[in-house]
Amino acid sequence: MAPISTRRLALNLKGIEHQTEWIPYCDIEKRFKELDIPPSDIRSDGTPAYTIPAIYDSSTNARISDSLKIIEHLDEAYPHTPKLLAPGTEVLTAAFTWAVRQRMRRPTWPLVVPATVTSGLDGPSATKYRGNFESWAKMSLEEFKQNAALIDKAWKDAEEGYSTVNDWLKAASKSPNQAVGPWLTGKDVRLADIVLAADLAWPVAVFGEDSEEWKKIGSWNDGRWREYWGLFKQYATVH
């Protein structure tokens, strides 16, 4: 099960040659420190948070974590490739990213994580991921999976979150200034498009594109998410 991040989609969309290094979930902080990659954020208690994705660009010697910073770097360092951040949209894009992940990734989390632990991870990584989930759920992963009421609520919450984002997109499409095209802002793909695709890629990667779970998600909002993922499938290749 290969994670499909904004970084991977951006690199493939831009056509930039790259190689992936797989890091076990439990070793992310250790490996980042070895590679001198900075933390992506600072937690509320003041401690550094090390999260993927991250890149090392040998052509510029840049070491970067955090998706937005990675995209900014790629746009600047490779100006001949499609520009993913339109000038002056950085703040709006950051706000959109946060909002989408609150309404799509967060409610999908309790559905995807159990499958991730049981089929996508092993050893210390599975133990750590399981611990995070069970701390949140206040019960064992097995108890959660056997609780039909909780599972049903998780699906309803996820569908509600996706529908909220769908309402945003529908409202934007009615703007008289909206350019015509397959992407959110018209004919040019932008980081906002990749943010949506990356959040859709998570259940696709965990459940599988032929799974009942993904078919269910993909069918929401008149099939918007299935169609949107279809635009990005070609950019999800792992190198």
From TrEMBL:
Superkingdom of origin organism: Eukaryota
Domain GST N-terminal: 1-82
Pfam families attached to this UniProt entry: GST_C_7, GST_N_2
Protein name, UniProt field: GST N-terminal domain-containing protein
Organism listed in the record: Candolleomyces eurysporus
